[in-house]
Amino acid sequence: MLIIEVTNSRDVIRQRIGRLGERLIGRVVDAEAQVEKALIQELETAFKEFGIEARIVSVQGPQLVGREQLELPIQVREERDIRLSEP
Strand pairing of 54-60 and 75-82? Predict the structure, then answer.
């Protein structure tokens, strides 16, 4: 299982939407959710190309605490099952 923590979501959104949009971060734009959504789309494409089936879940709440602990109060934001063949 992989856990990927995006640590610069706000910076990525700032680069994409510019100075004017920077004021909207945290008010209208959820930087973390937007970056995760784009990342999930890229992962889905790459996984399909490699023949990987996976379940990707974007959640809000977990926090990495140092290198040895993960706190897990979660709220699912988005979920996607990647299948190579349609049932």
Answer: antiparallel
Question: Quick one: which of 71, 47, 52 has its CA closest to 60?
Answer: 71
DSSP letters spanning 15-84: HHHHHHHHTTBTTTB-HHHHHHHHHHHHHHHHHHHHT--EEEEEEE--EEETTTEEE---EEEEEEEE-S
pTM, two decimal places: 0.62
Q: What is the dihedral of CA 44, 79, 75, 8, to 10 degrees?
A: 20
pLDDT 10s digits, 77-86 = 888 888 888 6
Question: 18-37, pLDDT tens digit by residue?
Answer: 766 666 665 656 778 888 88
